[in-house]
Design goal:
Distance between the termini: 23 Å
Number of domains: 1
Shape: globular
Strand content: over 45%
Radius of gyration: 12 Å
Number of strands: 8
Helix content: under 10%
Oligomer: single chain
């Protein structure tokens, strides 16, 4: 599975935040079986949950839909 980041991307990992990539890079995550897209109260926003198994690490990315597609909420 691949995430392409156009801007600085912050990913929540086990209650800590880590900067994974900056500007136009491709990041690979091993997330077999589980990628969830969760709805929020705001119709244009989603939460992406990438679950890394078997370690049970969850990567959480908040995104918002705009003219260019879904982008991370800063």
């Amino acid at each position: 599975n691949v995430i392409i980041t156009n801007y600085e991307t912050t990913i929540k990992e086990n209650e800590n935040y880590y900067i994974k990539e900056k500007g136009g890079k491709v990041t690979e995550y091993w997330v077999p079986n589980t990628i969830q897209i969760l709805r929020t109260e705001n119709i244009s926003e989603r939460i992406l949950l990438l679950k890394n198994r078997p370690q049970s690490i969850i990567y959480e990315i908040n995104v918002k839909l705009d003219d260019s597609g879904f982008n991370e909420i800063k």
